[in-house]
Amino acid sequence: MKIHPIPSAAEEDYLKFLYLLGGQTPDGRVRTRQLASELGVACPSVTKMLKRMAERGFVSYQRYQGATLTSHGERSARATLHHHCLWEMYLHHQFGMSWDAAHHEAERLEHVLSNQLGDRIATHLRSARHSLEDAAPPEVLKLVAIERDRSASDRSQAGEIR
Fold it and tell me: Is pLDDT at 147 greater than 60 in this prediction?
């Protein structure tokens, strides 16, 4: 069994944007310039990071062609997005933070959420009957919809949906 590296916080940010932007293209490829614009960094910095992430098995990168997520990179991106959504919902519902404020806090907290705590937050939100669709801003709903579509597609390809 191959042991995959754990992404750094900076790598998780790149993975998250690669996942979201790649979902908007037929081949999942994201150009360096597009990623630089979304992250607010210089193109050479993006190129350096993508090369590093390719060496670590998170992306497939080709010079002048951009990058696509590997299966390991996609799993890591989805986990980061899941953590982000959990934090947003928890902060909004538990502490009454605005969605905008919760989003900014979630940007920092998404990198430090363990699976165990994430499961407890999800259980709490379900038991409190918080419905994401009732109050979430469009950006959060879009993330959740993308995740649901990809999860359903993955299960369908694995033969889990009948």
Answer: no
